[in-house]
């Protein structure tokens, strides 16, 4: 997958993540300058997992977010399209009885309606070929009143930060990637996918369009990352908790 190829054909995306799976977490920690762990903590707070809840982690990769949720007592289904990521996730977290790894397509989730108390996706929605379809699928499999939390790279609202961030991605990051990644070309695509991804308000509109209600977002690290949250509508009998 090249710099210019942002069509995100599923077989190419899967193959790319297969290639980077073994060093993916290490590379991300370095490229995020240590912020990746903080973003996971903030994602957990937004999801607010409760003991015994069933949570779907879409585009789970090696299960870094799944582990955080399982540590809070949730029963987590970690779904990813990449066989390599699933294999690496099982190697790292396979002994954890509260995490189940499933290979599957975010646009065709292999689960019944109203299965999960919450759904989440961290830094993976932009790699889905049809992200709006994936949002509708997460709505379908999440119980009425349940919540969706998305952590994704976004657009810093302040121009000076936005300019500096893009300079880092285009100038500094390629050199770092050559030193630490097993597949620098894959990160060229990932950088371009971040730049092409919609800003916070547009993604919020996608959630509303999919059917989520009371959608809101907040910025992390000056808007380099944004957390979006929405709720699955309840029946006419009540309303979702805040």
From TrEMBL:
Pathway: Quinol/quinone metabolism; menaquinone biosynthesis; menaquinol from 1,4-dihydroxy-2-naphthoate: step 2/2. It catalyses: a 2-demethylmenaquinol + S-adenosyl-L-methionine = a menaquinol + S-adenosyl-L-homocysteine + H(+). Gene3D superfamilies: Vaccinia Virus protein VP39. CDD domains: AdoMet_MTases (cd02440). S-adenosyl-L-methionine binds at residues 62, 80, 105-106, 122. One of its GO terms (biological process) is menaquinone biosynthetic process. Keywords: Menaquinone biosynthesis, Methyltransferase, S-adenosyl-L-methionine, Transferase. GO terms for molecular function: demethylmenaquinone methyltransferase activity. Belongs to the class I-like SAM-binding methyltransferase superfamily. MenG/UbiE family. Methyltransferase required for the conversion of demethylmenaquinol (DMKH2) to menaquinol (MKH2). This is Demethylmenaquinone methyltransferase.
